[in-house]
Design a protein that fits this description.
This protein is an alpha+beta fold. Helices cover about 45% and strands about 15% of the residues. It has two domains: about 120 residues, Phosphorylase Kinase, domain 1, CATH 3.30.200; about 220 residues, Alpha-Beta Complex (Aminoglycoside 3'-phosphotransferase, Chain: A, domain 2), CATH 3.90.1200. The strands form three sheets. Strands 1-2-3-5-4 form a five-stranded antiparallel beta sheet, sandwiched between helices. Strands 6-9 form a two-stranded antiparallel ribbon. The longest helix is centred in the C-terminal third of the chain and has 23 residues. The relative contact order is 0.11. It comes from Vibrio fortis. InterPro entries: CHK_kinase-like, EcKL, Kinase-like_dom_sf. One of its GO terms (molecular function) is kinase activity.
Length: about 350
């Protein structure tokens, strides 16, 4: 079923409208096409509704021919994308039914799956008190510093991440078996094509060691998996965040989320100077979150285990980016230096272990 204004899609949206508020009457607002031509994300408005004014519909229909801005139109890429939609469907079916104000996500209202097609109907965060999105330009060369709104939104995201991570520490892997075994979209096992063309031989040689170190990170938890700034919405005061887009949620080291988030919320030229600020905010929030969700854990010990993993987590992301798009702006002096730091620390630890 194609994702466009076809008769079949209209009937589909009519059925959703009727199931949500008893009338087929609705208006469609297309928010965006999905990556690679895999469908669309729309907001259905219900003019006659007295309770639910709108819902978000993620309508995935596998295309005959996929698109990719970097040319990665491989069968493995397609399989990874299909798996991601299966995971997201599982997420909204099984993990969103109890609303948590400390790390809010849209509640899944309906999930349908057919051959080559997925349909996820979820709450509209705009109607839940999160109408704002970020306008931050991470590549703005003429802008100095960060506005109050940008700082507030950044801190709100770090608060959300800290609570999400704390909440799911030591979750039973069997309880999340329908999600990614290892979260994030750049996980090494799912990116052999990018690794094979990676020119950075040092990073290539150490890719499995980096991956292993992240897997051995103490206090494993769920990670969002694509925690960029664009995947958060904010309340009217920009002090609280809610997250969307759970295609790559799964078990892993929490620092992978923090590294990706920082790459989207701090300009490259500022990263070295702002690194401690970002990490300090995150771990301050994590301390509060652990007191709420995991009072049996010692926050100092968790931070001592996680903070040193930040460089390793970013080196893992650097491995992906340098293979995927060697000239990408996310490869810069800061990320190169951080990757060298991570590799140096790993080599030093190996030397100590051998001794």
């Amino acid at each position: 079923m194609p994702c466009s204004t076809t008769d079949s899609t209209t009937r589909l949206y009519n059925a959703i409208a009727h199931s949500v508020h008893g009338s087929e009457r609705h208006q469609v607002e297309v928010i965006q096409r999905l990556w690679g031509g895999y469908g669309e994300l729309v907001r259905l408005h219900f003019p006659d509704a007295t309770e639910v004014a709108s819902v978000i519909v993620k309508h995935v229909a596998l295309p005959d021919k996929t698109e990719h801005p970097k040319g990665w139109n491989t069968q493995l890429s397609h399989q990874r994308k299909v798996k991601s939609y299966q995971v997201e469907t599982s997420w909204y079916q099984g993990f969103t039914q109890e609303y948590d104000p400390h790390c809010p996500v849209p509640v899944g209202l309906q999930c349908q799956q057919a051959e080559g097609e997925w349909l996820i109907v979820m709450q509209d965060l705009k109607t839940l008190g999160f109408p704002n999105t970020s306008n931050f330009d991470v590549l703005a060369s003429e802008v100095e510093g960060y506005s109050l709104e940008e700082v507030q939104q950044r801190n709100a995201c770090l608060r959300w991440l800290a609570h999400f991570h704390a909440k799911h520490i030591n979750i039973n892997p069997s309880d999340v078996s329908s999600l990614w075994e290892t979260g994030t979209y750049w996980h090494l096992a799912t990116r052999p094509d990018e690794l094979s063309v990676l020119d950075d031989q040092t990073l290539k040689t150490n890719a499995e060691k980096i991956d292993h170190k992240l897997k051995e990170c103490p206090y494993p938890t769920l990670v969002h998996g694509d925690a960029k700034l664009a995947n958060f919405c904010f309340d009217i005061e920009n002090k609280n965040a809610a997250a969307v887009d759970f295609q790559y949620v799964g078990l892993s080291c929490a620092m992978k989320d923090v590294a990706l988030f920082m790459s989207s919320a701090i300009r490259p030229r500022d990263c070295a100077e702002r690194e401690n600020e970002v990490l300090n905010v995150y771990f301050e929030q994590l301390t509060q979150a652990l007191a709420l969700y995991q009072p049996q854990l010692n926050a100092v010990q968790v931070e001592a285990a996680w903070r040193p993993m930040f460089a390793t987590a970013w080196a893992d992301f650097q491995r992906f980016v340098k293979g995927w798009s060697p000239n990408h702006w996310k490869i810069n002096p800061y990320t190169e230096q951080l990757t060298k730091k991570a590799l140096s620390e790993m080599n030093e630890q190996e030397f100590v272990d051998v001794r």
